[in-house]
Structure formats: structure tokens, C-alpha cells
Amino acid sequence: MFKALKNVFGSIRSAISKGISEALGAIASREIRYDDIAKRSDELVVRLVEADIAYEVAEEIVIGVAKRLDGVRISRFEDLDAVVEDKLREAIKEILLRGVWKGDLVKLAAERKPLKLVFMGVNGVGKTTTIAKVARFFTKHGLKVLVVAGDTFRAGAQEHLAVHCSRLGVPFFRAKYGSDPGAVVYDAVRHAEKQGYDVVLIDTAGRQHTDRDLMEEIKKIVRVSKPDLKILVLDSLTGNDAVNQAR
Ligand SMILES: Nc1nc2c(ncn2[C@@H]2O[C@H](COP(=O)(O)OP(=O)(O)O)[C@@H](O)[C@H]2O)c(=O)[nH]1
Ligand SMILES: [Mg+2]
Are residues 51 and 137 in the same domain? Predict the structure, then answer.
């Protein structure tokens, strides 16, 4: 998957470079124009879409590169690929960083006491592993963390989390298998409030967005815990379906 993306971005870079060098022709140096790229935009967008990049994003990447290259002076002896790659990176980075939450979790935890985070996502994406990493992050900052097993469904799920917690030295609020996760989470949050925890990390059973019962269950967990943040864990190899999972 990453290889496919790397290849497609490489091919985009080459196509853009080729377009510019054709436009440059025999002239020793001139400014790159927006249209040098824009006139190939259909072809570029199609290549990106074929690599499972959403249409709107593909368009935005191409326009972003065209805008950044517009007016850049280039000579025939310059490494055109490097110039294009640089702008391509910038365009992609801008899209990826948009909407990234830049808050300070440690500060927020001190304010909320407890800060409540619910982790959700389909099976096997890495919710439990992420919780262990996040727990470690908070304990390193000297905060008191409680981990809650909201997964009362999948065999072994609680043991998995319990092993992480014991290695981290973090208390673990467990529940009976088959018990109502909403009730477990409710009890855990009350417990955390009384005991002065700074952070509550809530694990949930993996669910497909198409499974209605489990979706109702997660709504209940959210209702009773009133989380400060709902964290959707996604597999980085998921393409456009990530948007459906988020919805
Ligand atoms: N390569 C890789 N594997 C991971 C990562 N996070 C979790 N895993 C592995 O993916 C599997 C499922 O992770 P788990 O945390 O149990 O997922 P959960 O079902 O969402 O709780 C485990 O074997 C993890 O070791 C990651 O960032 N990279
Ligand atoms: Mg899990």
C-alpha cells in the first residue's frame, strides 16, 4: 500500500516535471506557469484516484502543486524533479495537517480531572495497543491513569489489556464478560472521580459501523461517560473506507 502510494507520487512527480521541461523547451530559463501543470490535471488526478485517493483530495493535491510551482524560476540545468517533489510534499503535508488537533492533553487532564477518552474502531486496528501507548504517555507526565475494559465481548480482550496495564503499572478496571459495557464504564468513571484520577482511558469492543447493536452500545458508553475526546483508531492502510468508519 505505501509502496503503491510512493509509486503513484513518483509517477506524478515525473509527469509534472516532464510537462514543465516540455514547456521550457530550448529556453535556458523561465518561470513555471500554473497552466504548465493545470493542463495535465485530468491525467494527474486520474492517477491519484486509481491509487485510492479520494477525488477531492486528488484535485486538491494537483492544484496545490500547480499553485506552489507558479512563478518559480527554473533553468534547464536544474534538478526539476527535486523542485517538483518539494512542492508535492508541501501540498500533501498541508492537506494532512489540516484539522489536526493541537491541544495540550496534559494540561487538559489537569483541568478536567478526570480527562475521559473513549477509543473506538473496528476489530484489530490497534485500539488496545494505542491505549497502552497513551497510558504510558500520561504516566510519564506524572498523571494518575485508570484504564477501563469496555470490551466485555471478545474473549481474551480483557486479559490483553490487563497484561499491558500490569507492565505499565497502571490500574485496570475490569468487568465480567458479557456484562453491560455501559454499566461498567459508568462505574469506572464514578470510581475515577472519587479516587482523584487524572485520566480515564476507555477501551471498547471492535465494531463494524454496519453492526447496529454494537453501535447502540458505543452510543451508550459515550452517553454515560461523556468523554472529552472520542478517539477513532484506524489502520493506516485503510483507504477511503476510513471516512465511512468515521461516520
Ligand atoms: N504493525 C503494527 N501493528 C500494530 C500496531 N498497533 C497494534 N498492532 C498489532 O495489531 C494487532 C491488533 O491490535 P489490538 O491493539 O489488539 O487491536 P484492537 O482489536 O483494536 O484492540 C496486535 O497484534 C497488535 O500488536 C501498529 O501501530 N503497527
Ligand atoms: Mg482490543
Answer: no
Final residue in a domain of this structure, among 97, 117, 138: 97
pLDDT digits (tens, 9 = 90+) for 87-100: 999 999 999 888 78
In the numeric block, which cell numbers belong to residue 123? 476489530
- For ligand 1, atom 3, name the residue with the nearest CA: 126
Question: Minimal CA–CA distance to 194: which of 146, 162, 147?
Answer: 146
Pocket of ligand 1 (CB under 6 A): 121, 123-129, 160, 206
> What atom in ligand 1 is closest to the CA of residue 131?
15
**Cβ–Cβ < 8 Å for 15, 40:** yes
- Rounded mean pLDDT of the chain? 89
Short-list 194, 198, 192, CA closest to 173: 192
127-140 helix and 105-112 helix, angle to the nearest 10 degrees: 80
State how far the Cα of 11 lies from the Cα of 65, in Å rounded to an integer: 14
C-alpha cell at 183: 454499566
Closest ligand 1 atom to residue 233 Cα is 20
- Residues 199, 112, single domain; the answer is yes
Q: Give the list of residues 6+ apart from residue 77 with CB closer than 8 angstroms, or none.
A: none
